[in-house]
Write a structure and sequence with these properties.
By secondary structure, this protein is an alpha/beta fold. Helices cover 44% and strands 19% of the residues. The chain has helices spanning 2-16, 33-49, 65-71, 86-93, 129-138, 153-165, 180-189, 199-207, 231-234, 255-270, 272-279, 290-311, and strands at 22-26, 53-57, 79-84, 105-121, 144-146, 170-172, 194-198, 211-216, 242-250, 284-285. Helix 2 links the parallel strand 1 (22-26) and strand 2. The N and C termini lie far apart (54 Å). The relative contact order is 0.19.
Length: 316
């Protein structure tokens, strides 16, 4: 009888999910893209579930601290990872990770997609994409570019830019504990020559004249920076690259929980108030089923491998 009751409770638990607070763990720090997106949807999820949904910032170790924490968490749906496309890329570009970005997680749901802006510090004297390319070609390997970490979306995007622009430069990863605000500050200070950042995070420094917006990384200009050309328009034909965000849970999480999470996250993204919040950051909600998103993550991993091979990048 005890065994039967225990099995009944195990089968019932996923259906009742969630019955306690849910944690959303993100890797880039307060004000970073995942933090902004997670805080945009967490109140709606809390409303849907009748449970608190908290957002926790765990930056550090080149943005791998948060995934490492979630990978070791119980596979019960109460600890979620909100990450960027880095979750698909780090398996290609980072070696000796304490987790497998693909095998140790289940891809649950996509969140949003938005462009980066390619920027340079005003002190560099570089004001256009053409000037950046010319400076890099005049001194191969002499310029430095910053990113939010090896294998992150900004790192891969910059490697793709360098490859298509026909230039070489030195990658400067963040220091241990650096959040994206610190990486932007390094560009402002001139420690790095150029970088890519989500537009909403670089906007204040661009408007203050501390950063120069060189190009928007997608095929369409941004209404936040109407006078900034796309990178394709500015001298790298065909260039198109965006950052995207999603939600993952530890491998082994019950299928019923994964399915509920995927459907409820999609419901939250479809509500007018959440869309209004996201629109302020020019973040476009993505729409995929859970299996579609899982396949998308694998395809993005394969795309990262192709870029890394073409650029001659070895895992670090």
């Amino acid at each position: 009888m005890a065994l039967v009751c225990g099995l009944a409770l195990m089968l019932q638990a996923p259906q009742d999910y969630p019955t306690k607070p849910v944690r959303m763990i993100e890797p880039f720090g307060v004000g970073g893209g995942p933090d902004i997106i997670a805080r945009a949807i967490s109140p709606k999820l809390s409303e849907l579930w009748g449970q608190p949904v908290t957002v926790e910032n765990h930056p550090g170790a080149g943005s791998t601290s948060a995934p490492a924490l979630v990978a070791k968490s119980s596979a019960d749906g109460y600890t979620l990872l909100v990450n960027t496309s880095a979750q698909a890329y780090t398996a290609v570009l980072v070696k000796d990770l304490p987790y497998d970005p693909l095998k140790d997680f289940i891809a649950v749901a996509p969140l949003t997609r938005q462009p980066y802006v390619l920027v340079s510090g005003s002190s560099s004297g570089i004001t256009t994409v053409g000037e950046l390319i010319a400076a890099a070609k005049a001194k191969p390997g002499g310029l430095k570019f910053g990113s939010t970490g090896i294998g992150t979306g900004s790192h891969l995007g910059l490697e793709k830019f360098n490859l298509q622009a026909g230039i070489t430069a030195v990658h400067v990863p963040p220091r241990p504990g650096d959040a994206i605000a610190d990486v932007i500050a390094h560009a402002v200070a001139g420690s790095t020559t150029y970088m890519m950042a989500p537009i909403s995070l670089a906007l204040a420094d661009i408007r203050a004249g501390k950063l120069r917006g060189l190009g928007v990384t997608t095929q369409k200009r941004s209404s936040l920076l109407p006078d900034v050309l796309t990178v394709a328009e500015a001298g790298v034909p065909g260039f198109d690259y965006a950052i995207w965000y999603g939600v993952w849970v530890p491998a082994g999480t019950p299928a019923q929980v994964v399915d509920k999470l995927a459907k409820d996250i999609a419901r939250a993204l479809a509500t007018p108030d959440v869309r209004d919040r996201l629109a302020k950051h020019r973040a476009d909600p993505m729409s995929m089923t859970q299996p579609e998103f899982a396949r998308y993550v694998v395809s993005e991993n394969e795309n990262a491998a192709r870029i890394a091979k073409a650029a001659g990048i070895k895992p670090q």
